[in-house]
Write a structure and sequence with these properties.
- The structure holds two protein chains of two kinds.
- Chain A is mainly alpha-helical.
- Chain A is built from 15 helices and no strands.
- Chain A has a domain of 218 residues: MetI-like fold (Orthogonal Bundle), CATH 1.10.3720.10.
- In chain A, helix 5 packs antiparallel against helix 11.
- Chain A is globular, with a radius of gyration of 24 Å.
- Chain B starts with 10 loop residues before the first strand and ends with a helix.
- Chain B is an alpha/beta fold.
- In chain B, 37% of the residues lie in helices and 26% in strands.
- Chain B has two domains: 200 residues, P-loop containing nucleotide triphosphate hydrolases (Rossmann fold, 3-Layer(aba) Sandwich); 184 residues, P-loop containing nucleotide triphosphate hydrolases (Rossmann fold), CATH 3.40.50.
- The chains are: A mainly alpha, B alpha/beta.
- The interface between A and B is medium-sized, with 21 and 30 residues.
- Chain A: This is ABC transporter permease subunit.
């Protein structure tokens, strides 16, 4: 057990180290972005002096390494800085803390991701297991063809089709998913129904096919033949003998798709006007709001690292060879 | 039961005119061509034959099971009055694991790695509710004890990877026995085990089958093993029955020529010749894989033109010794001296000439050849690399080499996948010969082959040795092979050399303890061998 714990701690340490590397990459690549926030805000007419003063106020005059370590230092204390937007040439400062901007959006994104995951993961596992159980039957082919179709269709198109059917022809769900902090839970669920359904259709195929493949891959093992010759039924073989050995690859692909739900859904957010973190980041990039872009990028990186770490841990605890060494 | 001695009442399994086809190369081929089999309650039948004879397929068919890619095309399988050839999957599942049990060849692969041994042991009995779960578990512990497993109370809570192969094979026997089946199919259960472990597993299996009066079909290619287990023996070849007879009769007076040829392999024995001119010697070698030390002060000297056999169980350091000689694993201490000169420790420091003089042949000919190269390319490569032969000269030499290994030039364009197991090993021998070596290291080169094919390979090696004065270092765990080919023997145990000497010295008493254990564990073609051996060891 201690060996497992130390492995997990080691992975966690590696994850944190990765996060530092990623932070450096984020910082340097944003520094390399063309254009400059002060020039963008002040306009081409601004004098050199105004620009310099403004840059100084934002701290952009300092050398990059200094700015990097200042940023990392304050992030470590939970301070993501102040957004650049909200300032203008007139000197008024209505800027907000990055945390205040990002957090509500992050919660919205996690809410949508959570609702989608609750539908998509069990559905994908169910379809994957039943497709493996009834492999090469009509059912298997229909499931495969259907999920392939949904994954091969661009997500905005899936979204518009769903809007056409469920918001326009049969208006059961709203086509806009605009929610704010005051929206009650029931209402929230109602409004995210279509975006959640869209995302489900997009991610289910990958997870389902991986589950099916992982199970079928194991069905050729001698211990599966042994289970058959001990009188196990098909469903017992799949659930009791194959599935416990297939968790590691399945967990990996689930983690990958959940990460996508957090970091990659900006198109769906735009279609449904959903106030998620993806839109926030795209807006921040357009307006060169560096602190917000950095915060978002860091959150995305952390999401990937955390979810992959979870998948690794699931892989470890479901493998008796690692959990119970000789 | 009444006093009715009408023999048919005892018949448990009656298979008639079994025909099974297998699918390969895009078409169906017959694998079993009309075999009959009758087994009474409590009887043990030995089913022997070479690989491809269809013995495993027939054994599984006795359960009404055909593996994917095979189909039953004819015949009836009456098990206690139920025709398994016609029964539905559901009906068969009710019998499998409860009234008919199966013990597979590789226990390590046949246990589910995700579940504890005890859970797998009681699984089949619990599924059909033969008795309450708690009783099944108590019973399993008793079976573990009867099978002489260490710590029978707690071994069940371990996972398959936590116990040794010999122990797993016994747990699998307990698993088969747990529901008290009428019939057990043993499918080569000891083939993957060392001789010393094999003895323990065999005696445990035999005792428990006798104790519960279970009928069994024992499938193996090892005659001496089947002689210990079976009441009668059926010999299969090419999916057809060759002959069947009670064990003693079969051993002493086999009728068919094929059966006699199976028996004769073990008679191959080369007279030893002493050699004085040492071509290769290993002096005080220690070697380690990372922190794990596997060789301790190993000393072996190999006379020119002779065969030195290195014997020992798996893990005794035989193959590691070969790796040290070839330079694949530089030793941590000691040296390898070749023709009076010390060889550089690492492969990359050796000259082409030094590399050329020591060649190697591996156990798995399959994996030792590039599957995408033709025989000509495989044999031609060392000709080009060491001797600089190209074009016509290379081709002529390849044909000559094929002749030397008793194959003709029609093999030139074949790929390894188009060769039989014995032919593949011959190609590997030709590849080693192509370099004109002085020493060839043979690492278990016959272990994966059938007995008759083995004999052919061994005779080829002996003939080549005579013609070209080649020296062999022959690594094996099979004592019959050692007797057949060696001049000198080195016995290894746990990374140390127990003894080295002429074959006649090593194989004659008095033996050191370990040599004694190793030699006495080799099954002999005597049905009483196991009984006598166990009696001997107990006193």
């Amino acid at each position: 057990m201690n060996a497992v714990l130390s492995t997990i701690l080691k992975r966690l340490g590696l994850g944190i180290a990765t996060l530092f590397v990623v932070s450096a990459i984020i910082f340097s690549s944003i520094s390399m972005l063309p254009g400059d926030f002060s020039e963008a805000v002040l306009g081409q007419a601004a004098t050199k002096e105004t620009v310099t003063a403004f840059r100084k106020e934002l701290g952009l005059d300092k050398p990059a390494p200094v700015r990097y370590f200042e940023w990392v230092g304050s992030v470590l204390q939970g301070d993501f800085g102040t957004s650049f937007s909200g300032r203008n040439a007139s000197g008024q400062d209505r800027s907000r803390q990055v945390v205040d901007l990002v957090m509500p959006r992050l919660w919205n994104t996690l809410f949508l991701a959570g609702v989608t995951a609750l539908i998509a993961v069990p559905l994908a596992l169910f379809l994957g297991l039943t497709a493996a159980l009834y492999r090469n039957t009509a059912y298997d082919r229909v499931v495969n063809a259907a999920t392939l179709t949904t994954i091969s269709t661009p997500e905005f198109f899936v979204a518009y089709i769903l809007i056409l059917f469920f918001a326009s022809l049969w208006p059961v769900f709203p086509s806009l998913a605009n929610i704010d902090a005051s929206t009650a839970l029931g209402e929230r669920l109602y409004r995210v129904a279509l975006p959640a359904l869209t995302l489900t259709l997009v991610i289910v195929a990958h997870m389902m096919r991986m589950t099916r493949a992982a199970i079928i891959n194991l069905l050729a093992s001698p211990y599966i033949e042994m289970a058959r010759l001990k009188g196990a039924s098909r469903s017992e073989i799949i659930l009791k003998h194959a599935l416990p050995n297939a968790w590691a690859p399945i967990a990996t692909v689930i983690a990958f798709n959940l990460a996508y739900l957090v970091v990659g859904v900006v198109v769906v957010e735009v279609v449904f006007v959903y106030p998620g973190i993806g839109q926030l980041m795209v807006d921040a990039v357009t307006s060169r709001d560096i602190p917000v872009v950095q915060a978002c990028a860091l959150i995305f990186a952390a999401t990937y690292i955390l979810l992959n770490l979870t998948a690794d841990i699931i892989g470890i605890v479901t493998n008796p060879r690692l959990l119970h060494p000789r | 039961m009444t006093d009715n001695h009408e023999p048919n009442h005892d018949i448990l399994l009656k298979m008639r005119d079994i025909r099974i086809d297998g699918f390969s190369d895009e078409q169906w081929h017959p694998i079993i061509k009309g075999v009959d089999l009758t087994l009474r309650r409590g009887e043990i039948m030995g089913l022997i034959g070479e690989s491809g004879a269809g013995k495993s397929t027939l054994g599984k068919a006795a359960m009404g099971y055909t593996q994917p890619g095979c189909k039953l095309t004819g015949g009836s399988i009456l098990f206690d009055g139920i025709d398994l050839a016609k029964a539905s999957d559901r009906e068969k599942r009710r019998l499998w694991g409860t009234r008919i049990a199966y013990v597979a060849q590789s226990a390590a692969a046949s246990f589910n790695p995700a579940h504890r041994l005890i859970d797998q042991t009681v699984e089949a009995a619990n599924r059909r509710g033969i008795r309450p779960d708690a009783d099944s578990r108590t019973d399993a512990v008793e079976l573990f004890r009867a099978l002489q497993l260490p710590n029978p109370e707690t071994i069940g809570s371990r996972y398959p990877h936590q116990v040794s192969g010999g122990q797993l094979q016994r747990v699998m026997t307990a698993m088969a026995m747990s529901p008290r089946p009428d019939l057990i199919i043993f499918d080569e259960p000891t083939t993957a085990l060392d001789v010393t472990t094999q003895v323990e597993v065999l005696s445990a299996m035999r005792n428990i089958v006798e104790e519960f009066n279970t009928a069994a079909i024992y499938i193996t290619h090892d005659l001496a093993v089947v002689a210990q287990m079976a009441d009668f023996i059926k010999v299969l070849r090419y999916g057809e029955e060759v002959e069947q007879a009670p064990t003693r009769k079969m051993l002493t007076q086999p009728e068919e020529a094929y059966t006699k040829s199976l028996w004769s392999v073990r008679a191959l024995e080369k007279p030893e010749v002493k050699g004085e001119d040492i071509v290769l010697s290993i002096n005080h070698v220690d070697a380690a894989y990372g922190p794990v030390k596997v060789l301790h002060d190993v000393n072996i000297s190999i006379p020119r033109g002779r065969t030195v056999a290195v014997v020992g169980e798996s893990g005794s350091g035989k193959s590691t010794t070969a790796r040290v000689i070839t330079g694949l694993l530089p030793p941590s201490a000691g040296e390898v001296v070749f023709n009076g000169e010390p060889l550089p420790a690492a492969l990359k420091d050796r000259s082409k000439d030094q590399l050329q003089k020591i060649q190697m042949i591996y156990q798995m000919a399959d994996t030792a050849m590039n599957p995408r190269q033709t025989v000509e390319e495989i044999i031609g490569r060392p000709l080009e690399f060491y001797l600089g032969l190209t074009g016509k000269a290379r081709e002529a030499r390849v044909i000559k080499l094929l002749e030397m290994i008793e194959l003709d030039d029609s093999f030139m364009d074949r790929l390894p996948s188009e060769l039989s197991g014995g032919q593949k090993q011959r190609i590997c021998i030709a590849r080693a010969l192509a370099a004109n070596p002085e020493v060839i290291i043979c690492d278990e080169v016959t272990s994966a082959l059938d007995q008759i094919v083995q004999e052919g390979i061994l005779q080829l090696l002996l003939r080549l040795q005579k013609q070209y004065n080649i020296t062999y270092l022959f690594i094996t765990h099979d004592i019959a092979t050692v007797k057949a080919i060696s001049d000198e023997i080195v016995v290894m145990l746990q990374g140390k050399v127990v003894e080295q000497g002429l074959k006649s010295e090593i194989l004659a008493p008095p033996f050191p303890d370990y040599t004694e254990l190793l030699l006495s564990s080799v099954p002999e073609m005597d049905p009483d061998w196991l009984t006598n051996l166990l009696a001997d060891r107990n006193t």
